[in-house]
């Protein structure tokens, strides 16, 4: 099937042809046959890099009105926005600031790219454009089972469909075990395929020997870079099948071999620290010289160094100058952009990354090496989900550039069989709803009441009727949980039951605090905590900006900040010395450790507004520079919510607007 034969205007056809899309890939042709250009609902569960974005574009460009592209991961939204914005004669809007409330400014766009949180927030705030949508594309729909964002995604999609029953829904998924269930939920035709534009073979390397799933074996030279004694070993004393090389040495050999054959590599490890240390280890291997990219690598290093003067920035710049990079969620977005674009331009031989890189960022490589297949989960090392490892492996092979992609799991002789069973032959997990999680239910039940969608428990169940959960288990399965949730919300002061009409009849209405909480897009627990804190702060003689920060940081909407053992005693002293400025007494909290972490975040933010630099804070508190950015961003949002809640309850806490304006 040719692009020229599709029902697209010639301007779009020309655009696609100029970008190398002339003939449709088989899953794309299947989507056209399923009616994606005629308003039909389609679920495409197809491998990485098999052209899902083009399926989305077909739906949105042929829809009979404005379209919405829901992008669960913020990091991907910009890439998708750019894919749409480059199309001729199209107004495209983007909204990814996860939490700002309005959204009315998005009206008038032909296509809106937004996170599910942003659309949820727009719905709660009554944004008019939501009702005018003709088409919604849900990217990464397999993230339905992610904590918190999964329920938001399914409730948002259900609400869009309830408000607008004719809306076309197109959902794009990684290969999962139950795509038929997702298709049934969305009344969609399922496109399922294992087709990939570049062949992928997956294997397990033990020592220098890789056994692939196609029956072939490859020997990788272990001399040269794969020397013993690098600083990146994972220290698990693993047996590698007879030689004295550890997983990191084997990884280094696989990277060196890829580069020697003219390719690039992605190496996945389990933690941020491991990503940095592997990159530093590989930086000694002369990869930039081998690739002949010294000048470009040096320029990429300079670009990274120009972002900031943090330790992380220096480390990244040094690695980049040697043709290697690291990539993890603690990086600032400026650093991530340098790394991703340098890799696409072939100015970097290898990115050492945590699994977050696998979730959609378009950085294909000749070879993917998965060094670590287990991750520490707080109590033990656990195997990564098969889906996650498949997402990493799927990054191997650049269409038109590589003859084939290779994904290699680094193992040991005694783990080889398990790795094959789990990740080479193993099927990915099924996607399951997490809507019944009590914290998610509290958020979405409050929203249903505050928006006026529901006034009784049974109307709340109607709102949930269109969710994936209801499709799988029946909304009735939530009846008891919804009743309990309403009780919780009554106790938290978010809603109340009002008697109505006949004996025993009541309707549930949001209190002013509940309404503000929902519109400000904070969790009910946050709203409750902030209101308590504001009441305390209003009568405190010594409320300062630290007070304002503590009351917003001690909420589930602020990320935790890790508190190391050595810091604990010092943070305890700080909390005691500043107890007059904190809204929680040291003996009042049920979760002292969690509160002390919040005090740490509050202290960092307070020093930030006092003029401490990102370099100083990163050094003093051992947080990633990107972590500081995201906390500052969250603090802005939470302080604005706190201000709105203060107005709602009629108290004045001047340190809240003061902290906000200085932030
Ligand atoms: N029919 C086609 N012919 C040639 N190239 C194509 C075609 N369709 C898509 N591509 C190219 O293939 C690449 C991968 O496509 P895309 O990013 O849409 O993959 P994807 O399925 O969304 O992968 P991911 O799992 O990363 O989301 C892009 O560079 C795109 O331009």
Word description of this protein:
- Monomer.
- Residues 249-439 form the Helicase C-terminal domain.
- The chain has 663 residues and is an alpha/beta fold.
- It folds into 4 domains: 3-192, Rossmann fold (3-Layer(aba) Sandwich); 200-424, P-loop containing nucleotide triphosphate hydrolases (Rossmann fold); 438-515, Arc Repressor Mutant, subunit A (Orthogonal Bundle), CATH 1.10.10; 522-662, Sec63 N-terminal domain-like fold.
- The protein has 27 helices and 19 strands.
- The strands form 4 sheets. An 8-stranded mixed beta sheet has the order 10-9-8-17-14-11-13-12, sandwiched between helices. The chain has a 7-stranded parallel beta sheet with strand order 3-4-2-5-6-1-7, with helices on both faces.
- Strand 12 (324-327), helix 13 and strand 13 (350-353) form a beta-alpha-beta unit.
- Helix 16 (438-450) crosses helix 20 (512-519) and helix 21 (524-538) packs across helix 26 (625-649).
- The termini are far apart.
- Adenosine-5'-triphosphate (ATP) is lined by residues 20-21, 24-25, 28, 48-54, 360, 362, 399.
What are the SSEs and their pairings?
Blueprint: H1 10-18, H2 26-33, E1 42-45, H3 52-62, E2 67-70, H4 74-85, E3 92-95, E4 111-114, H5 116-124, E5 135-138, H6 149-163, E6 168-173, H7 179-185, E7 189-192, E8 200-206, E9 209-212, E10 217-219, H8 247-260, E11 265-268, H9 272-282, H10 287-291, H11 294-305, H12 311-321, E12 324-327, H13 333-344, E13 350-353, E14 367-370, E15 374-376, E16 381-383, H14 386-393, E17 405-411, H15 416-424, H16 438-450, H17 457-464, H18 468-473, H19 479-491, E18 495-499, E19 506-510, H20 512-519, H21 524-538, H22 545-553, H23 565-577, H24 592-609, H25 614-621, H26 625-649, H27 655-662
Parallel strand pairs: 1-6, 1-7, 2-4, 2-5, 3-4, 5-6, 8-17, 11-13, 11-14, 12-13, 14-17
Antiparallel strand pairs: 8-9, 9-10, 15-16, 18-19
Helix pairs in contact: 5-6, 9-12, 11-12, 11-13, 16-19, 16-20, 17-19, 20-21, 20-26, 21-22, 21-26, 22-24, 22-26, 22-27, 26-27
The protein binds adenosine-5'-triphosphate.
